[in-house]
Amino acid sequence: MPGMIRALLWKEWREQRGVVAAGLILVVLAPLGTFAWSASRSNPLSGDDHNQLLGLFFVLFLWPL
């Protein structure tokens, strides 16, 4: 029985690793992107504004995953 579960988990991991990789990339790049965008503006965002923007970003891009 444990061999069957291990095989099933391995199969699921192989099928879903692209989704996991995309999610991890977004989690790493989203804060960097918001800070770079904020730095390019004439009036940079505050910490609370960054938190709200990141929350919106994660909802919009990670929800479909």
**Gross morphology:** rod-shaped
- Give unreliable regions as ranges: none
The value of Rg in angstroms is 18 Å
User: What structural class do the secondary elements suggest?
Assistant: mainly alpha
How would you sum up this structure, described in words?
- With 65 residues, this protein is mainly alpha-helical.
- 85% of the residues lie in helices and 0% in strands.
- It is built from two helices and no strands.
- The longest helix is centred in the N-terminal third of the chain and has 39 residues, at 2-40.
- It is rod-shaped and about 60 Å long.
- The mean pLDDT is 81.
Summarize this, please?
The protein is mainly α and 65 residues long. The protein has helices spanning 2-40, 47-62.
For this entry, give a set of tags.
single chain, 65 residues, mainly alpha
Topology, element by element:
Layout: H1 2-40, H2 47-62
Helix pairs in contact: 1-2
